[in-house]
Structures are given as C-alpha cells and as structure tokens.
C-alpha cells in the first residue's frame, strides 16, 4: 500500500488515504519445446513463456523459476506423485501450463525504461533438478540442463 496524506478542506486536519498499488501484468505466451530431451520430470514437453520487447531493444530479461528438487524416490513421490499416479504439479509437469501467463514485478509493462521495453522470457521450473540435470532415474526425467 502507498499512503497519501491530504488536508481536509473544512477541518484542515490531515487524514490518511491508503492507495493500493497494483502494477499491470505483462502477458507472456507459452512456447513448448520440441527437442525430445527438453522435458519435465514426468516426460511432458518443457517450455518457456515469451513476450517480445520493443523493436530495437537489446535488453533481455530471462528468469528461471525456482522451486527446490527431489533426490530419491520418496522425495520425488512427495513432490510429483508416483510414476503410476502423477499429481501433475507444474513443478513436475507441463500438462497444466496455461497458453498465456500474466506476470508482474520485473515483467510489468509499468516498469521504467529500459525494463518496460526489454524482451521477456520466463522459464517455468518443471524438472525437479535445479535446472542442472541431464539424466533419467526412478522412471523420471531430470533434464533441466538440456
């Protein structure tokens, strides 16, 4: 909240008005990856969200979503469900990725230049490997580095 003190016309006493600041969200479009090794933990295709910037912008914002990882069967089952019955969490699967994703903060078009004009990429985290893996184990894929 932002606050704004205004003097009342009659009483000449200050009073406080709280103003909610709601930054506009940028809408990024999903780009599914076609490389057979670029997959989420459950084997669904990984992807990223993209919004082109201003025509002559040379600035890029590339954001890798965080989210922890799993390291054995028990922690992967807690995170992703079992291989036979996955929970389709976006931390393990792209099956629930939306075609468009609104993002605010650094992605907001209300940011000052040059951020408002930057090309924007948001990489959702669905590999359970800290964006570093390149292996399969326990019937799952860990391909964050692919």
Q: What general outline do the C-alpha atoms trace?
A: elongated
Q: In percent, how helical is the residue content? A: under 10%
Q: Strand-residue fraction? A: 25-35%
Distance between the amino and carboxyl termini: 42 Å
Q: Please provide the count of β strands.
A: 9
Using only CA atoms, what is the Rg?
21 Å
Mean pLDDT: 83
Class derived from helix and strand content: mainly beta
Low-confidence stretches: 1-22
Q: Mind describing the biggest β-sheet?
A: 5 strands, mixed
Arrangement of strands in the largest sheet: 5-7-4-3-6
Q: What is the chain-wise order of helices and strands?
A: EEEEEHEEEE
Say what oligomer this is.
Answer: single chain
Counting DSSP H or I runs of 4 or more residues, the number of helices is: 1
List keywords for this structure.
146 residues; disordered N terminus; two-stranded antiparallel ribbon; elongated; mainly beta; 1 helix
Can you characterise this structure?
With 146 residues, the chain is mainly beta. It contains one helix and nine strands, in the order βββββαββββ. Helices cover 5% and strands 30% of the residues. The longest helix is centred in the middle third of the chain and has 8 residues. The two termini are 42 Å apart. The N terminus is likely disordered.
Layout: helices, strands, pairs:
Layout: E1 2-7, E2 14-19, E3 26-32, E4 47-51, E5 60-64, H1 73-80, E6 100-103, E7 119-123, E8 135-137, E9 140-142
